[in-house]
Specification:
3 helices, mainly alpha
Length: about 70
């Protein structure tokens, strides 16, 4: 990255400027939604499941810490 810094600084800005590339239409099939954050449906499911489990564990910990519930073996 830094090796080519001197060469890129020597080039003029106009040479680096390129015409904007038109975005191509996404190849979507009927019933397929656009990817959210670049993830597929199974990846989104795993993220949602992990968030749910983290919320359950954190909520249980908060209830134990505030002594709203007590474990039966203590």
């Amino acid at each position: 990255m830094l090796d080519d810094l001197r060469n890129s600084a020597a080039q003029s800005f106009q040479e680096e400027e390129q015409a904007p590339v038109e975005p191509s239409e996404m190849d979507t099939q009927p019933g397929n939604s656009a990817p959210f954050l670049g993830m597929t449906a199974p990846q989104r499911f795993v993220v949602a499941l992990l968030l749910f489990l983290m919320t359950c564990v954190f909520g249980t910990f908060c209830l134990l810490a505030t002594q709203k519930i007590v474990l039966p073996f203590f």
